[in-house]
Amino acid sequence: NGLRRAMATFRHNGTIGNFEDKMVGRMIARGYDPDFARNCFNQIKGFGEYGFPESHACAFAHLVYVSAWVKWLYPDVFAACLLNSQPMGFYAPAQIVRDAREHGVEVRHPDVNASDWDATLERRPRRRRHALRLGMRSIDGFKSVWAEAIMRAREAGPFADLDGLRRRAALPPSALDRLAEADACGSLDLTRRQGVWAAKGAAPASSAPLFEAMGLNEADGRPPAALPVLAPSEEVVGDYQTIRLSLKGHPVAFLREQLAQKGALAARDYPARPNGRTVAVGGVVLVRQRPGTAKGVCFMTIEDETGVANLVIWPDVFERFRPVAMGARMVLARGKVQTAEGVTHLVVDHLEDWTPMLGHLVPDNAPGSGHAPARGRHPRDVRVLPGSRDFH
Predict the structure, then answer these.
(1) Which residue in 22, 171, 261, 387 has the most C-beta neighbors within 10 A?
(2) Could you tell me the pTM of the whole model?
């Protein structure tokens, strides 16, 4: 039993060596060959590097079963729990939300009059499943103390306008900016651009004495009615830059025509092609994996507006396209369809870096274009989409 415990904690505590003399010595005393005895113990040590005791395996199997049961019967609950456990695991919030929507879950954007800090479930009349409301924790750079202040102030009733939100929740300008940039002021009858305008023009927490003495209001008031509307692609980019996903669309959808001109199929279509057929697929990079046990093979998952495609990049191809395989935010991959046991991959023989094409989603990052760059960064340095999850 002591050896079993030492195996489970070998890498952390290094106690397995305490049993080496006992095991090897007693095996030799009972007539075993010394080399055989030492090899036996070395195999136990090797297993301790990656193996799991049986109790761990049983617990993990139970966890997997319960998770699968909840996901099958209550996908709304399952998605909310995963979002509230971020950051974690393999899949980013965008993929969790996409999967939930594909399983019939209505997902709603963060909003100052509806969202808590965590993702919550909202009842829908005569519907079995709840709607999933994204929480304020999904807004990049938003603090939990700000969300708690909003939730407390909201107990007295909903907010009617941005100035009432600022006063009742005692929010700093930076909090208002992040809410507006994330398009979380829809219930205040403000679009993203109007919200950013109103947040920048909100009255400060304490007015200057001269203005107070003259009875002047420093707030800019309602945004002008003629304020231009953001293009759909700009709205999607704004969502990705602030909440790392969008319920309004997918970035690749706006580049579908250019991809089609290159002969690229949608992610949902390429698995239907015959085994061994050469095809092209384009999408944003979600995950890169290059595990040490895969002998240099790189696995890449890309996504377009229809789903995901799994790419296999052999070592020689990886070396030919290393900069693209390691750093591109969007790729166009060409290769052969490989289907086995119900799973389809694309074995890549050519990669193109399509990251610059993402810049076409936002016509101009300069002030006045309607696109708000990330705080504190020059517009030309702003990444259109957040980075992938890489495991090298």
Answers:
(1) 171
(2) 0.76
